[in-house]
Amino acid sequence: MSGHAADFQYEIYLNGMTGAVPRLPTDLTRLAELTEQRLGSGPVGYVAGGAGDGSTDRANRAALDRLRIVPRVLRDVHARDLSVHVLGRTLPAPVALAPIGVLSILHPEAEGAAARAAAARGVPYIHSSAASTPIEQVAEALGDAERWFQLYWSKDREVTRSFLTRARDTGFTVLFVTLDTPLLAWRPRDLDQAYLPFLRGVGTANYFTDPAFQAGLARPVHEDPDAAVMHFIGLFSDPSNTWPDLAFLRENWDGPIVLKGVLHPDDARAAADAGMDGVVVSNHGGRQVAGAIGAADALPAVVDAVGDRLDILFDSGVRSGADIAKVLALGARAVLIGRPYAYGLALDGQAGVDHVIRCLLAELDLTLALSGHATPATFTAADLRREGDR
Ligand SMILES: Cc1cc2nc3c(=O)[nH]c(=O)nc-3n(C[C@H](O)[C@H](O)[C@H](O)COP(=O)(O)O)c2cc1C
Ligand SMILES: O=C(O)C(=O)c1ccccc1
After folding, report:
1. Distance 101 CA to ligand 2 centre (A)
2. What ipTM does the predicted assembly reach?
3. Cα 100 to averaged position of ligand 2 atoms, centre (Å)
4. CATH match for 7-386 among 3.40.50.300, 1.10.10.10, 3.40.50.920, 3.20.20.70
């Protein structure tokens, strides 16, 4: 990245000299309501919805809102650098796009558009097992950018082995294993509309193109697509897995492995003991356990438990550069962005995802600078107060 991420701010003001304003709001919390207005209720409900009564989503926001920054002054922040070291590589900024499956319910260009936007800004894109675009096509869209893959750990070990082989052969280097979705949660918004993308043939692209998956079908996908969908639903995740099963993944993947969906410090310790490289502290954006702890409330105990043994990443509820700054201060090395980029995609395709990335990085840069920090490294828990604490 040349210059500072915050240069985007002046670019917007300069464009304003000719009367132009941004095509999308720069307060990303407004993207959800715009998407609600413009998109069909099935797709937008699926993306916006949460588990149960939505209390986990609210807990995510409350946990972040309670954290307050105590800015410092007169600390020379003219030369700044957002880059970080994480999972053995240097990233231009402590941000990646979270794995989100089924993006074609939001925009016809789907994962390809999100991947191209991320690649153009040097932000890693995490390709979901449940994407609507096969991994080989997304690899092409990513060009020479970082390729990270998210695994839903299938009941069929041959499918998992085949996914890992395809990921490796197409240049993916980091594996995220999502552990908070052994079953799909109780999601009233989807239930009340009887809307599930897979039953409409979305989110199965990696499976339907997979030789090991196809080998489990009585008839080819195109001859009996309904049977193929049912087969996918039967095997997409395996609720019988336990910690010793991680050895299978370690044997079949050479690069870093990150466990996504860890909230308890004992699980983080178990991840380190199992030879994993990182964890994502996440409650899946409030979509899995209703009543779960806000992700930012879970982060400090995980950092205390394994901060010196694992790279700790974070997601769930992040909507601004200030939110990113707060979780970095608590000890996360990088933050995954979920729904905001999905809404950007829904509203304006690749340009919408680019807008979201640029807004977040610009605001992160400005938040750190205005708080007295030229790099994320010097901004720590000592720069935060939790409202209510003394
Ligand atoms: C529509 C949708 C689909 C998702 N699909 C996946 C997925 O395929 N794999 C996965 O690990 N997480 C998935 N997630 C969870 C995200 O990776 C991430 O944990 C979550 O969106 C972060 O919360 P946020 O949306 O509040 O930022 C999905 C989230 C949404 C909103
Ligand atoms: O909807 C989700 O949150 C999710 O993670 C998922 C699960 C299965 C397939 C696609 C997405």
Report:
1. 6
2. 0.99
3. 7
4. 3.20.20.70
